[in-house]
Amino acid sequence: MAVDPEGAELARFVAEDPGRPLVMLNLLRFAPGGRTLYGEYTRRTAAFLARYGGELLYSGDGETPLVAERGQAWDAVLLVRYPDRQAFSRMVADPEYQEITGLRTRALSEAVLQPTTPWGTQRRA
Description:
Largest sheet: 4 strands, antiparallel
CATH topology: Alpha-Beta Plaits
Order of helices and strands: HEHEEHHHE
Number of strands: 4
Radius of gyration: 15 Å
Distance between the termini: 33 Å
Number of helices: 5
Structural class: alpha+beta
């Protein structure tokens, strides 16, 4: 299952709409023992969020879904605001940040990173 974004995905992500703020929805499924590793990852990520203008808006445990298909329940949900897609891209490319990404990779068995933009800021179709 997918856990980490790859180079081509990041390039497309930045090219789609540079310059607008976004909130990244993180849906997380922990590997055995992963919750502790992810806690360490989030603790160490705080400095990088501050450096690149990001902000953890919400983090919480997933509970029993009201509406979902089988297998769509998640262990945890995070919402992280970034000033723009370039800020996110610069953060994940930062060599110091790269030193801690292994914690996230080992902590998760599956993840979704879904960029979102606030209503009222989308391009008109």
